[in-house]
Amino acid sequence: MLSEMLGELNGSHTGARYNAPGASLKTAVLGLFLDNTYEGDGLRVEEVIKRGPFDVKKTGVTPGCIIEKIDGHNILAGEDYNWMLDGKAGKPIHVTVFNPTTKKRSDVTVKAISKGEQNELLYKRWVDRNRALVDSLSGGQLAYVHVKTCAPCSAASSTRNLCLMARWLVPTRSTSGPSLPAYSCARTTTATATASPLSIRNWVSANSSVPPCLAR
Q1: Cβ neighbours of residue 213 closer than 8 Å, sequence gap 6 or more
Q2: pLDDT in tens, 171-216
Q3: Contact call for residues 53 and 112 (beta carbons, < 8 A)
Q4: Which strand ranges, in their side-by-side order, compose the sheet holding 192-193?
Q5: Under a CB-based contact definition with an 8 Å cutoff, are residues 44 and 31 in contact?
Q6: Does the pLDDT value for residue 77 go beyond 50?
Q7: How far from 156 is each of 65, 128, 135, 182, 195, CA to CA, in Å?
């Protein structure tokens, strides 16, 4: 009913919704991709997310390592371990890690993060991967930038260094807000927005709308 009432206003960017209160005790995450095919005890690391808890300090945790314990609790095959992280976002946790390559076991302390913080890391990971691919395909001649929101500070931050490039590419999808390349072109007078070569344009069109948390 609220949506219909707002529709009578014939205005843009209007809406109504209700968000129920979430759990009072939020489950933290580790900033890792885990191997879902692993069936033994513990959690086998598939990837350490850049800028995450196990990346910002020297933990020695690499792909293939097994996380055996969290705060002294054994992680057993087939049993839920998430309760071990309840209410621990932003707090130090102690994990026991086994490295099958070196056959060494070590205790590591890291600060767990919230799911929201991990989603932000995944967004940055997505942008990094897009930028690396565009740089590779263009031979370093084409810059890549994703303007996250339509706020002027976000757009200005994203385009600040693009004056150094002769050409640059701004995907228009998966962006919170209206058309931002036009704003960027106006703000960056020495750069020319382009989508060449064709292979890069096609790739960005196909991939820039993938949600960061799913882009693996």
Answers
A1: 119, 122
A2: 655 556 554 444 444 344 333 344 434 445 554 455 554 444 434 4
A3: yes
A4: 142-144, 167-169, 192-193
A5: no
A6: yes
A7: 41, 18, 21, 12, 20
Cis peptide before 197 (omega within 30 of 0): yes
Q: Which two tokens stand for residue 153?
A: 């500070």
β-partners of residue 139 are none
pTM of the model: 0.69
Q: Is the dihedral of CA 204, 206, 207, 209 positive or negative?
A: positive
Query: What separation in angstroms does the CA of 124 have from each of 52, 81, 183?
Result: 11, 27, 22
User: What would the two tokens of residue 187 be?
Assistant: 């703000």
Q: What are phi and psi of 47, to 5 degrees?
A: -155, 140
